[in-house]
User: What shape does this take?
Amino acid sequence: MATIAAVARPASASALDRIDWAMSGIEIEIPSWGFVNTGTRFRVFPQAGVPRTVQEKIDDAATVRRFTGIVGAVSLHIPWDKVDDYGALRAYAAERGLRIGGINSNTFQDLDYKLGSVCNPDPAIRAKAVRAIVECCEIAAATGANAVKVWLGDGTNYPGQDDLRWRRHRLVEALREVYPHLPDGVRLYLEYKLYEPALYSTDVQDWGQSLAVCRALGDRAGVCVDTGHHAMGVNIEQIVAALLAEGRLGGFDLNDKKYGDDDLMVGSIDPYQLFRIAHELVNAMRDETDPVAQTCANQTVYMLDQCHNIEPKLPAMIRSVMNLQETIAKALLVDRDALLAAQAAGDVLEANRQLQDAFSTDVRPLLAELRVARGLAADPYRAYLDSGEAAEREAARAGGTAAGWG
Ligand code: RM4
Ligand code: MN
Assistant: This one.
């Protein structure tokens, strides 16, 4: 999707030109589970108008696309989004302008996985988990998806509960069984998470552990960075830079958090952190001296992994897409030549000022202009609220069983 020519506009170009890629180049992926009823471990709060079928989830993603103009794909979660005919589902999405993006495996809800899935001490359960992820590979082939994403709930709750090193061996062995099943052109992304649901040890705890597994698998394995899956204070943009340098950044699960894995709207708590991450990506896309990082940045998937527990889901997703777009636009405003000159001169304050100046720029009027030029509403969030579609969605979805977690 991204091309270097599109983002490498010189600082002398107009601000409108410089941020154009945030309208015409970026492609955001929406998770099917972002529209269903979710909650905390204490309570799920059902909402009216929530999708009952995977087709209705795709309809919601298509609505976000219609209003924002920069959504290109919808990711599925298996088994939540299982259907009989994946070819038909692919066509359904295509009719609404969407590709099927990542196929996310779910080996954390079946009772058999109480002690883990691919790291479980029982070889029969490990084999079952491998089959579940292989099925995701098959669904990727049938839907034309370009990635299979693995996040594991595996881990232990108490020291001594299991052998940590053996669990690691089981993990690598299992994913090595999965890897040859990846269809041509499909990549495998391994997501890490500090803790939860396992509370003492998590089997893919951090980016380094994920990266080492990816290396053991092959070139088509990459790391998925979920922005909510780190300890507080961790320098996520530096992790992004390291993974770009290694050519192993697969994609993002974007969201924001204050404390734990809160799955709040991206950019809602710490927009400057999101900007620093965006800067690493844009910076790599512009860096012709580092082709590995440049290629990797150009292929990075931007998915929103969010749960809207108490806020209306569709407007929240539109707002999230806009937050991300604004942040990327700000990163595109960074004057890379001036930044490199300040860095080379050892001018600490000037280098930092270059970043902060871009971050402080209000890009909203510019993005509004770019949207209007493409026939979109200047403010997609406001336009959705004023459209009356929320009420229509509720009326059309009265009755039936809403999709959700409880
Ligand atoms: C996990 C992880 C996965 C997501 C599930 C629903 O915490 O973030 O990416 O698919 O939640
Ligand atoms: Mn995630």
Summary: The chain has 17 helices and ten strands.
